[in-house]
Design goal:
Layout (H helix, E strand, L loop, with lengths): L2 E4 L4 E3 L2 H9 L4 E4 L12 H19 L3 E7 L6 H8 L3 E2 L4 E16 L8 E8 L2 E5 L5 E4 L6 E7 L8 E2 L17
Antiparallel strand pairs: 1-2, 1-7, 3-8, 4-10, 5-11, 6-7, 6-8, 6-9, 6-10
Length: about 180
């Protein structure tokens, strides 16, 4: 389901191979995860992790990740505005940020300094069910789950304490929003 959008170039694509190549050249990994079955409404975190264990266990061992949990954001959450405000500000982490989307969707934005170009590079990836995105430690990014979030994702960690956001204070996230991805 992933959609790559390059707002400054008014270009986007749904081509998975093109998205993987673009992201891979920047150290970001996008993988497709087999979606095991349709989840029943209200499935517990333990049930979700058990359904994905066959894929996630080997993946986590291969990459040295130690823990996983489930985050559920839904439109009726009383704290949804506070959570969105936390995610939507540009930040970095001292360890990788890995998200496996179980259901719903959300948009990761990236802000990279490109030495070969005169301006920084800003782009987004809309992720949905079956997308696993790895944002390497130190990459400036933010996440937009929307005003009425509806997403369930597995979060994968080396150490949960490494996932504390370090906000950049650049304010770039206020200039970069998309109501709809600009892709063919």
């Amino acid at each position: 389901m992933a959609i790559l959008t390059l707002p400054n170039e008014q270009h986007g694509t749904r081509d998975l191979d093109a998205i993987r190549a673009f992201l891979g050249a920047r150290g970001i990994v996008l993988a497709r995860v087999p979606v095991p079955v349709m989840l029943r409404a209200g499935a517990s975190s333990e049930e979700i992790l058990a359904l994905y264990r066959e894929f996630l266990g080997p993946y986590m061992r291969q990459h040295g990740y130690q823990a996983a949990d489930v985050v559920v954001l839904h439109p009726d959450m009383p704290e949804r505005e506070q959570l969105r405000a936390k995610f939507i500000r540009e930040h970095t982490h001292s360890e990788d940020e890995v998200r496996c989307f179980v259901s719903g969707s959300g948009r990761f934005w990236f802000h990279l300094t490109n030495e070969a170009r005169e301006e920084d590079e800003v782009f987004s990836v809309l992720c949905g069910s079956g997308d696993l995105l790895t944002v390497p430690a130190g990459i400036k990014h933010w996440f937009d789950c929307g005003e009425r979030p509806d997403v369930t994702a597995i979060r994968i960690f080396t150490d949960r304490s490494g996932w504390v956001p370090v906000y950049t204070g650049s304010g770039i996230e206020q200039k970069c929003t998309l109501a709809e991805p600009c892709c063919p």
